[in-house]
Every structure is written in structure tokens, then in C-alpha cells.
Amino acid sequence: MINKFPYPNNVIDCVDSGVFVIDKNFTVHLWNDYMTIRCQFSSDDIVGLNLFDCFPELPQKWFKRKIKSVFLLKSPSYSAWEQRAYLFKFPHGRSVTGGVDFMYQNCCFTPILGQDNNVEYACITIKDVTDIAIATIKLKNTVMELERISSIDGLTQVYNRSHWEKCFQNEVDRVNRYDHPVSLLMFDMDFFKKINDKYGHLCGDEVLRQTAKRCTESLRSADVIGRYGGEEFCIFLPETDLADAAHIAEKLRHIISDTPIYYNSLVVSISVSIGFTSSRSTKNNYEKLISEADTALYAAKNNGRAQCVSFFDCDVTQQRAIAYHSNF
Amino acid sequence: MSSGLNFTEDQQDYLQEICNIGMGQAGQSLSVLFEQYVTLSVPSIEIISAINLVPTLKRLIPAEKISAVRQGFYTHVTDPNICGESITIFSNTDFEQLAQLIDLDEEVTFEVEQEILLEISNIINGACLSGIAEQISERFFSTPPSIIGQSIIIDNLLNKEHLVWDHALSIKIQYSVDKYSFQCDLLLLMPDSSVKYLQNVLNRLADEL
User: Fold this and answer.
1) What are the chain B neighbours of A61 within 8 Å (beta carbons)?
2) What pLDDT is recorded for position B4?
3) Which chain A residues are within 8 Å of B126, Cβ to Cβ?
4) Could you count the other beta carbons within 10 Å of the beta carbon of residue A238?
5) What is the pLDDT of residues B145-174, one digit of tens each?
């Protein structure tokens, strides 16, 4: 027969978490060593004192609400580092690698029931989750960066085709639901192959970069631009009808073409052909809209380039002929 | 009703009764806690099978965007009579109103919004579970609440989660505070064994009367 363990009270000081107990007036009744070695109060100092007098920096109102709910509902309440990084300004063990000011803490507020089954005290435990928090924050930032990279075209820093298409698809869904217009522009650099051949691919890259930059700078914040293919870009314009789209297309064509692009000591004149279309009142399909803008774009190319053409101005035979020759 | 585990009319009635009592207690507690009169509607309950969870949720919760908090509960970790996971779903949440409800004087940042969600769902969940626990003479322990998603669409609620539960007891709660009216849905997701245990308890309660 083994004797009853004689030192149960010491166990609380062996726990690798902060543990303390308060009553409903916030008078401290228990304070373990973990707490003691992280602040200037030992158990002897603080037991019998008001918690807020000793730690005036605690969020009093918040804390009181927590404790009130514990006493009232007889069930635990929690606080997590994701929403509230810390309760006590405790130092943490990663002063070099941490990059954080204080120990991240998960806290638990638990009721302690007395004889009559009413809550007499609240026990508060403080867990150090600094390592988990730092790793989680790092992971979150990495995921965000990966999401950004996977949606962006590396050369021009506008959306890549797959991400742009996803955005456009969502927009068309929204257009069908709420009956708002959306317009679509597709444009292609004229004689881009010649630029590459004459000035080199690095110059061609710079032309694409500058073109994308000129577009993003002149578009409205709701407009969404993407790189559709090699030298082909697409832009959708929410809440924009065909007439406004025509205006924007012409404006954009000038912004891109009016100033030549300077690359090292080279001066490269560029122009673009733009095809555009607009949504109907119902049953729009995003792929169909893309193919319409594409058709209009080829009509613009066919008519001699450096111009904007609306899908609604292309006649049917022209559309077919273009479809047939559409491999340039 | 789920396949295989049908609730009899009596069982349903008792379950409804237990939930009513639980919600009544929750309403009282919330009133005292928030120092405002909180009215909870009579909860409408439904047992749904986990496989049909998303389509059923879409029917039950017509809101476009929801926020959801999860929390585990169990009577014993390795050999529980009842265990499961509760999900509190908030529809079209107005955080400014909720902040007023819990008398928050801080600026309502993203983190504060999350804290409000966690706080309120922990309270509702705790009140509801302790109400049920008392009725069936069990004691529930729970894990800390965590956010599943904020302003997400219902389809994204559980598609990334591995659903280990067979059934869900869905409890629809409407609560209003003075001029504000909020709505949230509490889902108690449980495995077959827990639902069966619950049914046995319900039968016993029915026999006692």
C-alpha cells in the first residue's frame, strides 16, 4: 500500500503553464511559480491583492466580461493568440529569433465550483504558444505569397491567364445574377514579332512590361487586367456598357501607342489593336464573351491594325473569314 | 431524417424539449451577461446525415455569406457516451451590432470580429451543451473554439474539413436583443454511437413519464 502523495500543493509549481486563481472580486488566491518567475510578484506578494492593482495594463473591461461569463455560465471561456496575442506582457524565450515583443498566449478561464455547486473561483491558465504562433504566421505569409505568385504573370505583374479567367467567370456569374453590364477588351501588340526580331527579346519584354504598366495606371480600380497570351492582354470592365467600353478602349489605345517605349538607347514605337464586346441582359457565358472579343480583335487586325473594333460592328461573313484565318 | 437512425416522434419531442430548456437557460445567461434582455426563439431541430450536410445547410441557411466557429465536446476522451463537434454558423453578421451587444469599446478590427464570434459561440455552445448535459445527467468537456471561416460561402464551410461524423443535430436559434436581431445556427455533429446513446437516453426519459 503506497502512502498518499504528501506534496500535492507543490505540483502546481511544476506545471509548465501559468496558473492562478481569482475570486469574483479579482482578488488573487493562488499564483504558481511559472507566473512568479515571469513578473515581479511572488505568490506571497500577490495572494490577497487585487489583480488589476498589480497589473494595471490588463484589458480590464474585457477581462471582467470573461470572468463574469465563467461565473454565470459555469463553463470555461477562452482566449487565443490569433485574436489577442497576449494577456500578460511576459518575456519569451526567443528574444533573438522571435521577432515578437511578448510571449504569445492561449488562455483558459475555468470555473471552480464550491460545495453548493456555485462558482466560487475562476482558475486562469496561461500557455506559451510563441513557437506555434511564429511558425503559423510564417506559414500564413508564405501561403499568401504563393497565392500571389500563382495568380500573377511574372514578367508584367498583372494577373496571369488562369487567374484572370477565374475573376472574369465570377464577374459574369454576378452579371447574370444582378443584371449589371460588364464589358470585355482584348488587345494585341501590333507586329510584336518584328520588335523581338529587330531589337531582341529583352526589348520585347520591356515593351510588354511598359504596356501593362501604362494600362494599370490608366484603368479604374475595379477594372481587371490579365495577360492572356504572349503579347495579348485582356481587361474586363465591371458596370460598363458598350458605349463606355468603346470610349475606354480608344483612350487606352492612345495611352499605349502615343508615347514610344524607351529601352536603353532605343526608341520603339508601338501600336495595339483592340477588340471589345459587352454583356447582354441575361444568360451570358464568359467563354462566349471572350471569343467575341477575340473575333473583334482579329477584325481590328484585318482592317489594318492600330484601331478598336466592337464585336457588334463585325459582320457575320467577316467573322467567319477571320475565324478561318485566325492563326496569326 | 437520416437513413438508418430514425427518431421516433417521442424521441423528437424529448429532444426538442431538452433543447428548449437548454436554450431557455442560454437566454437567461446571455441576458445577465450582456445586461440586456435577450430573447431566444424556440429552437427548431433537425437530424441530418453528414453526407447531405452541405445541401441541407444550404436549405437551412439561405444567407450568401456566413461565418463559422467550431468546438469539440465529449463526455470522456477515450470512451465517450457522447462526443462530437459543434459548429456555430452566423449569417450576414453585422459586427458593429455584435460589438455593441458585448459592450465593446475597442475599434472593431478583424481580430476583434473574430473574438466576438468566438466569444458568442462559446457562450451559446456552452449554455446549450450544459443544458443538454444536465437533462441527460452527463458532464461535457469542450475544446477551445476556433474559427472555420469568416464571410465565406456555405460550400466552403466543410469541403476542406475531413468529416468524421455520421450525423448532425441541427438547432436553429434566432436571438434578438432589444432592437437588434441576430441569427445563428448551432450544429452538433456526432458519430452514430453518440446518436444511439442519445436515443437511449431519450427513450428512458420517455419511459419515466
Assistant:
1) 103, 105
2) 54
3) 73, 75-76
4) 15
5) 999 888 888 877 776 556 667 777 777 777
The dihedral sign for the CA sequence A290, A294, A296, A297: positive
Question: Which of A25-39, B64-78, B86-100 is modeled with the greatest confidence?
Answer: A25-39
Q: Which residue has the cell 447582354?
A: A280
Q: Are B117 and B150 in contact (CB under 8 A)?
A: yes
d(CA B121, CA B87): 9
Q: Does B33 sit within 8 Å of A68, measured CB to CB?
A: yes
- Residue B10 in contact with partner chain A when CB distance is under 8 A: no
ipTM of this complex prediction, to 2 decimal places: 0.79
Min distance B142 CA to chain A CA atoms (Å): 9
Given its phi and psi angles, is residue A306 left (phi above 0), alpha (psi -120 to 50 degrees) or beta? left
CB A226 within 8 A of CB A158: yes
Could you identify the residue written with the cell 503579347? A231
Check whether B47 has a pLDDT greater than 60.
yes
Chain B contact present for A80, CB below 8 A: yes
Q: Which three cell numbers stand for residue B170?
A: 441541427
Which residues of B are less than 8 Å from A72 in CB distance?
A: 29, 32-33
Segment B21-39, tens digit of pLDDT = 877 877 777 788 777 777 7
CB A212 within 8 A of CB A151: no
